[in-house]
TrEMBL record:
It comes from Cucumis sativus. One of its GO terms (biological process) is methylation. The keyword S-adenosyl-L-methionine applies. This is Thiol methyltransferase 2. SUPFAM superfamilies: S-adenosyl-L-methionine-dependent methyltransferases. The lineage of its organism: Eukaryota, Viridiplantae, Streptophyta, Embryophyta, Tracheophyta.
Length: 259
């Protein structure tokens, strides 16, 4: 029950201090619950609208979604985990690839003198937005954004690190084997793959995003020589994704890739 302001103040005027505190706490909890439910409902509505667009025009749907602002995967900020890994020096240096980079927040966050980051996206609208948002950042000299199809892209240089977040879950499940083969092709022999696995949710239906599990990644990566060196819950996940997201850090075998 949510108490009206007038009734709440009337009760407070007659109640002892301890009761005041209990009623205040209850009101705040009710308000927080209402706000959380409204936010969750709004997010789900945007996901359904996004899925409707992608269901009718999968090839050009990504540009349409960016034009209409139907981007429920876009946090509007760098991924908190990436900020933490950068701050603690827990990311490899060298060349980094972010497939499906979207607005490019993580690309710019990771970019530095020791780390050159390439943001890749199939959507021209996404790339335009990423360039616009990052144009005034001093990190821009250490990164670039390219409109390319991840699966057919053949760069001249390999990468020390590939970071995948909301990309694996965005592609149709039948494309996951091809995703793994391209990861293997683009990563240096001693390189690392970091995956934020989302959404891990048995009740999740349809897509994109398509539901994932740790075993989905293992089924793709293990035959290619990748082994997980770390799999943990992502304690820094944003609230709507808490409990539905895990981090995986994978190292590949020393087999020589080919471009």
């Amino acid at each position: 029950m949510i108490l009206g302001a007038g009734k709440f103040c009337s009760i407070l005027s007659r109640a002892p201090l301890q009761t005041h505190r209990a009623l205040t706490l209850k009101l705040r909890m009710n308000q927080n619950s209402t706000q959380h439910n409204a936010s969750k409902f709004n997010h789900q509505s945007r996901v359904h609208e996004f899925q409707k667009v992608m269901g009718t025009d999968h090839s050009g749907g990504w540009d349409i979604c960016w034009e209409q602002g139907l981007t429920p995967w876009d946090l509007g900020q760098p991924t908190p985990l990436i900020g933490h890994l950068c701050a603690t020096g827990a990311l490899p240096n060298g060349r980094v690839l972010v497939p499906g980079c979207g607005s490019g927040y993580d690309v710019v966050q990771m970019a530095c003198a020791e780390r050159y980051v390439v943001g890749l996206d199939i959507s021209d609208k996404a790339i335009q937005k990423a360039i616009e948002l990052s144009s005034s950042s001093p990190n821009m000299r250490h990164c670039t954004f390219l409109k390319e199809d991840f699966f057919s892209w053949r760069p001249k240089e390999l990468f020390d690190l590939i970071f995948d977040y909301t990309f694996f879950c965005a592609i149709e499940p039948v494309m996951r084997q091809a995703w793994g083969q391209q990861i293997q092709r683009l990563l240096k022999p001693n390189g690392e793959l970091i995956t934020l696995m989302f959404p891990i949710d048995d009740d999740h239906i349809g897509g994109p995003p398509y539901k994932v599990s740790v075993s989905d990644y293992e089924d793709v990566l293990h035959p290619l020589g990748f082994k997980a060196v770390l799999i943990n819950d992502n304690e820094l996940a944003v609230p709507p994704r808490k409990g539905r997201e895990m981090i995986g850090r994978w190292k590949r075998s020393l087999a020589q890739p080919s471009l």
